[in-house]
């Protein structure tokens, strides 16, 4: 993060996008419709400032929530955020809870990740060997900053860690799969943290995921009732989690100096990760990906 510069990207998931654009009081806003080597992002990226902090907002599923999890242009999204100088990503996503103690409407600041997606491209670097460290998939510095802010919120259940199971979708789990995910140690289940988190690491962007449990996954039998009322309850839980997410962001942005002053290991993730002989990498590929790795050439 050069010269202490910082720009926080906020990626909104189900239900959060409109609230982000409407509730955060951004000033000096600008709309960016970018092209990247991997196509166009999910939608326009809005930049501005909140409390003097440079912010970028991106709707993961696009306008109207038309992109299902497998169709999201993850590489274009992360690349575009890097082009705009983003140093941190705070991502939000609706999930199912795999634990009784993780209540609906809580905030889960995830610390681990299991990837069970299938067929999604997981790297920017297809013409050379780049192996980033990923033992800790979510930035501990960014997680700590969010958790300190979350603890100041009244009436919100907050979990400072949790393992995110990323499934392919778009169908939800079978009951047998749901029990298996619990046995594997997962705490919440969703469809969008991967390859988003991995690509952020490859782009040297510090990444944190705040999971928003809206219902219990099918390991837990649902009470008998009208399906429409069950859906209404899920939407209500999402609304409650969205309210908490906005409050979390507002609280965290009031303490941004703590984030700016603490280096993230993600910010030099490529320093020891380019295993190919740099002199033999196609110069056209070096130039194509210059926003990601240009400082190493």
Describe the structure.
This protein is an alpha/beta fold and 297 residues long. It has one domain (2-296): Rossmann fold, CATH 3.40.50. It is built from nine helices and eleven strands. The chain has helices at 17-23, 74-83, 140-150, 175-183, 196-202, 227-253, 256-260, 283-288, 290-293, and strands at residues 8-12, 27-32, 45-50, 53-59, 88-97, 107-109, 112-116, 158-159, 163-167, 188-190, 206-216. Strands 1, 2, 3, 4, 5, 6, 7, 8, 9, 10 and 11 form an eleven-stranded mixed beta sheet that branches. The longest helix is centred in the C-terminal third of the chain and has 27 residues, at 227-253. The radius of gyration is 19 Å and the shape is globular. The chain starts with 7 loop residues before the first strand and ends with a helix. The mean pLDDT is 94.
Topology of helices and strands:
Elements: E1 8-12, H1 17-23, E2 27-32, E3 45-50, E4 53-59, H2 74-83, E5 88-97, E6 107-109, E7 112-116, H3 140-150, E8 158-159, E9 163-167, H4 175-183, E10 188-190, H5 196-202, E11 206-216, H6 227-253, H7 256-260, H8 283-288, H9 290-293
Parallel strand pairs: 1-4, 1-5, 5-11, 6-8, 7-9, 9-10
Antiparallel strand pairs: 2-3, 3-4, 5-10, 6-11
Helix pairs in contact: 3-6
